[in-house]
Amino acid sequence: MQQREGCVPQGTNKASWPLFVRRFAPLFSCSFLGLAAIRVWLQCCVYDLYAATDSGMATVAVNLTRGIVTLVLMAIFARRTFSTQTQNRLGVASCILMTCGCVLLLAASETQTPLLGWIACVLSALGVVWGGGMWITFYERLDPEESLLYAFSALPLSCLAGLALGLLPKSLTMLVGAFMPALSLVTFRNAMQSLNGRDDAGCTSGATPHKAAPLPYAREFRDTFLRFLAGVALFSLALGFARGFPYGQAIELSGAMRVLHQLMTCLLCAGVLWHVLMKGRCLRLSALWNMPLMLLVIGVLLLACLTPQLMQVGSALVTVANTFTLAVLWYVSYDVARNMHVSSYLVLGAVWVTHQVPREAGRLIAMGVGPYDSSPMFVAMCMIVLLAGSMFLLVSNSTPLTRPLFADLNSTDPAINSSQNQGASQGDAYAPAFFNTGTIATPGTTSGAPRTTVNSEIPAIAGTSPAGPAATPTTNDIETRLLLMGKHYDLTRREVDIARLLIRDLSKVQIGEALCLSESTIRTHARNLYAKLDVHSREQLKELVEEFRL
């Protein structure tokens, strides 16, 4: 089926600047851009403000340690979910570790003590994994347009900050970098509080609540995502190799090339936002991924020429490809996490490990085997073969099969609508079919059978029945147990409401419609609810409610 050229994203309606302002300005908060502080910190402490393509072994050590720590956290999250209190403590700990890492790096440079530098690298890597990764829980609660806006705005904001910091002395730059983790933590908390305020007001973003098929990627073959990760790994391997090509060492960037790197990244991000949010056009993974692919191919070919001027431009393009890829992978992680049963931390961790580890492996190969001045063009062709493999695996709009990536932004596409409708007809088949009250249709109910709509559940939330006044509950009533559990486990009003509907086997989409919340917000509240109650499924929740006694 031919794709429509002028698909209008959900809620945008043939965009223009006044419409754009009316859509996003009332909900905007500067704290929503707090992720930029993490990348400013990375530029100051790990990449030396991109004075070169990287900072050699310091960059490799930090990123490889990040990969190992991420794998450890993924293994933990696969078995259990951290409570809100634990996550808050991890946020504070990550802030302290990143700040200490930055201070120690400054001390190491001033005292010429290599040991301090290595300790700083380890502390920095330990801190940034959670310090940056925690932001995925904020993005997951946004609708697709807002998430796109802030993801592709935070990156250029950090680029402009990096340009400004490049004008300062290095010691002052490091001190500014040491301030960034605390700024990120404060803005993250403010951002989450802002979203909680939206929930209390009964609306998450000012837009229509999310109504896509319930968790469509849950029905997708695992091979689909393994294919995606393989494509990312091939691209990252070539990228890491290119950062040390052709002499094995990082290539220093002139002042003009540093400006080119940062401003070109800003322009690419602005172009994506203009194309989607201002012009109302479709967003395709193929279009996004082609940008860093082409930049990297051109950069590698220019580096292979071994001409100083061309090598400068080539290294700048390689660096642009590396930076822009961050926004692409972040938004892909958001889209997948928002539509899967798997924890968003696990999704983000898998994508980031697949990106970072092969990239640093390629960098180590370049450092260990180079220089390649005798046959640079042959080595360049090998890298391009890797990129061709990545293109083959990633540049396709037909995968995933159950729902194309970024489908929520392309809601007028007939193919997408068709897949969503198909998913909606199948989604409830995965919900358990017991512990029902009889007032809400259970999975498998035919259209001709008597049923009550989701909205009829609203009176029950207040403790009344649709047919008459409130009944006097006994100690054995489910409603009474839920209220007592709420007090006992310190549940919020919203969490009690969601627990009430979860045990009645409503899908998260139906719960969102009943409570006027987005599906992603329902999932966030459900995870917090499960963590407080120390349960891991609806079945366990039902058992706890049934057995609860004070």
Features:
single chain; about 550 residues; mainly alpha; Growth Hormone, Chain: A; Arc Repressor Mutant, subunit A
Give a written overview of the molecule.
By secondary structure, the chain is an all-alpha fold. The chain has 2 domains: 381 residues, MFS general substrate transporter like domains (Growth Hormone, Chain: A, Up-down Bundle); 115 residues, Winged helix-like DNA-binding domain superfamily/Winged helix DNA-binding domain (Arc Repressor Mutant, subunit A, Orthogonal Bundle). The protein is 66% helix and 0% strand. The chain is built from 21 helices and no strands. α2 runs parallel beside α7, α7 runs antiparallel to α12 and α11 packs antiparallel against α14. The longest helix is centred in the middle third of the chain and has 31 residues. The N terminus is likely disordered.
Q: Tell me the name of the CATH homologous superfamily of the largest domain.
A: MFS general substrate transporter like domains
List unreliable stretches of 5+ residues: 1-14, 204-213, 412-476
* Spatial shape: globular
Largest sheet geometry? none
Total number of strands:
0
Instruction: Give the termini separation.
Output: 60 Å
CATH architecture of the largest domain: Up-down Bundle
Please provide the ordered H/E string of secondary-structure elements: HHHHHHHHHHHHHHHHHHHHH
* Percent helix range: 55-70%
Strand proportion, as a percent range, falls in under 5%
Number of helices, where a helix is a run of at least 4 consecutive DSSP H or I residues: 21
- Structural class based on helices, strands and sheet pairing: mainly alpha
CATH top level of the largest domain? Mainly Alpha
CATH topology of the largest domain: Growth Hormone, Chain: A
Total domains:
2
